[in-house]
Predict the 3D structure of the following.
Amino acid sequence: MIRLSKLIVSFIFLLLISMTVGCAGSTTPTSTLTPAPTSPQTPTQVTEPVIPTPTQSATPEPTTPESKTTPAKFTVNSLSMVPIVAEPGNPVTIEVKIMNVGRTEGSQSLALTVNGAEEEVKDVTLAPRASKTVAFTLVKDSSGLYEIEVAGLTKTLRVKQNGSYPRLGNNYVNYALFRNPTKLESMLESLARWDIITVPYFFYNFPQGMQQIRTLNPQIKILAWFEFGLADLWELQSTISSNESWYLHFGNTSGSDKPPEQRRVEMNESSPKGEPWLGMNPASDWSTYVPNYIHDKIMSTGFFNGVYYDWILESTSWRGNIDINNDGVADSPDIVDSEYINGMTKVLKLTRELLGPDAIIIGNPGAEWSESSPFWAYANGLYQENALGNESWSSHDFSKVWGIYQRNMQKLAPPSRISWIGADVNNKEYDEIDPVFSASELQKARYGLAITLLDDGYFGFDRGDESHKELWWLPEYDANLGLAQGKAQQRSDGTWVREFDNGTVIVNTTGSARTIQFTTTYQDVTTGNKGTSFTIQPQDGRIFILAR
């Protein structure tokens, strides 16, 4: 029995020695500098998602005799850039987080390249398992696009002179922006590229995100989108529900005596919440409540440059049988429209008095305000929705779009004139970020942009009046035209032209193709072709940049 036990112990001892020798034969691969891999994350349910920012160092992990044999290995991630849109001569901060994931101290060089050329190199030494944020400062004196790269991570910097062209707007009414924390950072960066944007007024509840947009683009103008002509379904819903007189009502028909809550006027189909969009009565105290709310609650946050009022119409008698004075009886169309426009004027006038001369006030009437509209005295301008589109109320062609555009821009200041032309795809569904457009949709976008460039307005392109929540960025948006050299002129061949510091815009409003001859070499921004002769199709516009 004892002899057998000794044999068993000896066997086990030899087995352990064999296993130890086998483990000693393993090797560790050498390390390289690589971008850190990313992995899917589960969204965290928070009131406002935290926008990621680079962190500083981690505590070094104690070394052991075994760990010293593992070389240093570096990963780089979290490339950030602030701002992403800068004026010439202003500093831009570029930061990356580098980490030593190896088990020995080591050094690594980080190179900042701009448009493929090395701009600056920094040497970094890190203990094992330590990390560090490395910052570069970049200043560019010339407007244009700059591709930024550090260790394989990239960003695009846009350097743009204040007041230069094109001037771009995004009517961004995406209620759910802050509900998507995994995509929030990239969406805010995308949104910050525009010169002027609207966002729902209740976004003041997300101060970190709102401040981030302005940090990314210090020049941006942000307007609080407010649906004045329709009942608010968000922060003010309960307040409105307790003030029945603020709603727009139908009058009782003969033999009927319905209470006001059963006579509310539906102005639109369904809202994003699936509820009817009810009309509001500007002849009521609603026109006093809203400007004070905008001033006290919204503008006081400092996030906004002004307000964008949706549904600022000059009449409502087209709905028929309207009881404008809330006495239960339908009023005549003339009385309805007179009281309606007086109420709309009141809200614009009071908003101007409360916000001051420098605030931006934009109204959306769908298409236009009349030449004699009292709104011009208080609003900076209007938003042409569905320009070049197919809605019955929209401006369908150049003459109509141009006529409304000029009616706005030729009004005397103050206030300063701002016109915003919004073309769209007639509510066709495309991806909200990376659409694949048909040739006809691209031509419409070029045409609308080129028309806008004939004067000093802003241009936007989205899905349409059913969904203003797209982040579509067209190649023409990055054209570096610089400042305008004068007013637009119509040429003898029917085309329109406007000259800029760095290029020319041509709009063909005719029914046939036109060939344009230059005396110097230009590049077509759309096609990339260079030359002195270009053909522009009917109802199309092109941006030509001087080839240098």
Remarks:
- The domain at 169-232+285-319+333-478 is CATH 3.20.20.70 (TIM Barrel).
- Residues 1-32, 38-46, 53-61 have pLDDT under 50 and may be disordered.
- Helices lie at 2-24, 184-191, 207-216, 237-241, 286-298, 333-355, 398-409, 439-453.
- The radius of gyration is 31 Å.
